[in-house]
Amino acid sequence: MKKWVQDLILGCILLLFSAVSFVYAYIMKDASAKYFFARADTYILLWTGVLGILSIALIVRSLRNRPDGQANQIVTKRVGVTILIIAVYIMLLGKLGFIASSTLFLAALLGFFTAETKGKHIRGKALLREIIICAAITVVTVVLVYYLFGVLLGVRLPTGILG
Questions:
Q1: Cα gap 124→131, rounded to integer Å
Q2: What secondary structure letter does DSSP report for 72?
Q3: Which residues have a Cβ under 8 Å from the Cβ of 21 and sit 6 or more positions away?
């Protein structure tokens, strides 16, 4: 497939997604917040509007330039595994809760990308070092996100069977 055709298709899909999301956010109207910038729908409108503008720019660029080069393959092993990990995370979120499912999610993503990048070249102490680094990143990220959203912002995060 030509690069410009792939960009055109991607631009159209993103434009459709942003238009539907924009309309949904416009209809949603968060009545619980008094101020415009405190409402959840404000930021959905903002980001979907930006995505729509960038989608239009991608469509115009693809139609105007029409580069002859071949496009890189979009659906690869990385994309498939990442989508699978995200799907499992979403399924486990309600059952295990935020902390457990997010820990598993980050550990799986970091483990997969580290193994794919470093592959068979990592053994012994280097492997142990990578495991420790992935575990530290996972724990710090989950704790910070939980503290930011669960404690500081007061968002009710899923507790699952643990809560």
A1: 11
A2: P
A3: 44, 48, 51
